[in-house]
Amino acid sequence: MNVEQNYLEINRQSWNNRTDTHLKSEFYNLEGFLNGKTSLNKIELDLLGDITGKKILHLQCHFGQDTISLSRLGAKVTGVDLSDKAIESAKQIAADTNANTQFICCDIYDLPNHLDEQFDLVFTSYGTIGWLPDLDKWAQVISKFLKPNGQFVFVEFHPVVWMFDDDFDKIGYRYFNSGAIVETENGTYADKEADISQSYVMWNHSLSEVVNSLIRNGIEINTLDEFDYSPYNCFNHTVEFEPHKYRIAHLDNKIPMVYAIVATKKAAYTL
């Protein structure tokens, strides 16, 4: 079996390998989170608005900080992730914080075999779709689990960012989806000096691929915004020009770094 065919197991192991380091990292600040600090950023908080009483499905939730942060805002939230180690940690953190959440460990394409309900809102954010080979299947899952007139809120790193090499010195990758990108990294974005190494399989997805996959599956785009900064210090050679706003130092504000979509499932749409 080739690497692309076996991407799920490779990526599961990749995220399992990162989890302990992430739990201990300043990046995720678990101690602050356990003491009530939210993990959500202003970008998504502004898009989400008042979610009191809403049922939310959170796709690719890692170890559940955003899932639990959403529940702290009054929602009933279900988090889904491929990594069994991350989900095990998410369940423990939820128990420690008395969160109104449940967690499911599975590949999101397989979620219909693990869950049978619909939600007011589906949410996913930051570094998620690059792990998925087929965005049409992704959009089908979103559409399936949204109630009619339900809302999809999505925040992601801009595809222009993924064109660059790690040091943002040159264009290293194609903007459009050209198939699997297979690489190995030392450390992790949350702790670049960590003594870990993992392989992974990813795909680049253009804005048009994202938007059209949603439209084809009965999801109407309401807003599409782009931002010239990242709320996370997860890239090389960054500068914090305002609190919690990071840019690549030598590129300043010249490239988009994040985009956000709010969309609505058409009431009459059926799969």
What is the architecture of the domain at 3-156 and 205-228 and 256-265 at the second tier of CATH? 3-Layer(aba) Sandwich
Mean pLDDT: 97
Order of helices and strands: HHHEHEHEEHEEEHEEEE
Q: Largest sheet, if any?
A: 7 strands, mixed
> According to CATH, what is the topology of the domain at 3-156 and 205-228 and 256-265?
Rossmann fold
Share of helical residues: 25-40%
Question: Largest sheet, order of strands side by side?
Answer: 3-2-1-4-5-11-8
Look at the structure and name the CATH superfamily of the domain at 3-156 and 205-228 and 256-265: Vaccinia Virus protein VP39
Give the number of helices.
7
Class of secondary structure makeup: alpha/beta
- C-alpha-based Rg, rounded: 18 Å
What's the N-to-C terminus distance? 32 Å
Unreliable spans are none
Question: What is the highest CATH level, the class of the domain at 3-156 and 205-228 and 256-265?
Answer: Alpha Beta
Number of strands: 11
Shape: globular
What percent of residues are in strands? 25-35%
Keywords: Methyltransferase, Transferase
Organism: Myroides phaeus
GO molecular function, one term: methyltransferase activity
Protein name: Methyltransferase domain-containing protein
Give a structural overview.
The protein has helices at residues 7-24, 30-34, 42-48, 65-72, 84-97, 135-145, 207-216; strands at residues 55-59, 76-81, 101-105, 119-125, 146-157, 181-186, 197-202, 219-227, 238-242, 245-248, 258-265. The chain has 271 residues and is of the alpha/beta class. It has a domain at 3-156 and 205-228 and 256-265: Rossmann fold. Strands 3-2-1-4-5-11-8 form a 7-stranded mixed β-sheet, sandwiched between helices. The protein has a two-stranded antiparallel ribbon with strand order 6-7. Strand 9 (238-242) and strand 10 (245-248) form a beta hairpin. Helix 6 (135-145) crosses helix 7 (207-216). It starts with 6 loop residues before the first helix and ends in a 6-residue tail after the last strand. The model has no long low-confidence stretch (mean pLDDT 97).
